[in-house]
Amino acid sequence: MYLDPEEEKMLDGEYGEAIAMAMKTVLRVAEALKAERLVRVKNAHISGISYKNIGDEGLQFLEELAAKGGRVSVPSSMNPAGLDLAQWRNMGVDKGYFEKQMRIINALAALGVKPTLTCTPYLYEDISYGDHLAWSESNAVLYANSIIGARSNRDGGPLALFEAIVGRAPLAGLHVESNRRPELVIDFTSVSKEVEEQNMYSVAGLLVGALTGNRVPLVRGLKLSKERLDYIKLFLAAVGATGGTGLVLIEGASPENYPASGVDTIEVDFKMLRETLDNYSGTDEGAIVLGCPHLSLDEIMDIISRLPENGTATRKIFLYTSREVYEALSAYMPKLREKNVYVFADTCMVVSPLNIYAGKEVITDSGKAAFYLKAQGYKVKLVSRQKAIEMAFT
Ligand code: F3S
Asked: How far is the CA of 190 from the centre of ligand 1 (A)?
């Protein structure tokens, strides 16, 4: 594989042990992917930072990498952690868990990763069409590739961190234009009206992921556009939960436009949507959890506008967002608490100990949250955001 002189020096340890270790790992992956060279990345996003998920082993790995002098060489951000850094006591989290989580965040910060603790870096980072990225977190990768036209593979958290340290990724997979062309068409035209009226974008996403696997689909017939950020986020996150692809070409929303000739077409009918949805009808009880992916400020303002003027929710509503959005909402917090609505930052329903503060039965509008919570043993119901709010106020 071709390495430029700087990359050779990194590999030879001239810039220190941590960079050499990162370069060796990136090259091993590049060889497995049959990449002929590396490509410089503009930005990195590191997932897998919840203590709940990576445990003591992950913590030790990060602390050792920081102790070896590792440092990212491009702007890098962090995915949500296992708790809200300010409200962890309200989550019923014990002090030991909190301290371990903080050590993970501090180790990453020592490596130069910004403690953004959100899974929506596309709302905050300076990313443009054609930029090469080292992103982990499937919903972020899908958004960057599919909506912005940036280029990232679906890296695991440790690989994205190593790529951030060397500032390069293998030139393979979705970094290469010829791999970004549609390999099948999924046509929603005959159910477009139902998906729109019943707000079934999460369901559509779960179905697309399951039908697609690792291929790049062209999705036709959904009324998705860049102005419908909330729907696009739910749709793509759900695709990432059930499928391995990092790119969905969406007619009307994706900037890339390739012909889809000579590939199979799957026509979606309502029965397919219904069967997908039926997997998530486990309960009518429990708290409402919204914010997978993290809610934007506009989305939370929209939720607030849909809450009834009078009355309190009969069950708790939990909203998850970034710290930045949380702080912008401070004036609304007393009113929200009065209505039995709680906003958490830095974390989400999937990576925090939800069972402690919300129980084992939940209702959500997110196909991704439904998929992972069900896998964790929760009883889950998937409904539209509007329906979830209505259920909380009846
Ligand atoms: Fe984000 Fe957690 Fe969902 S990290 S995409 S809110 S599972």
From this structure: 31
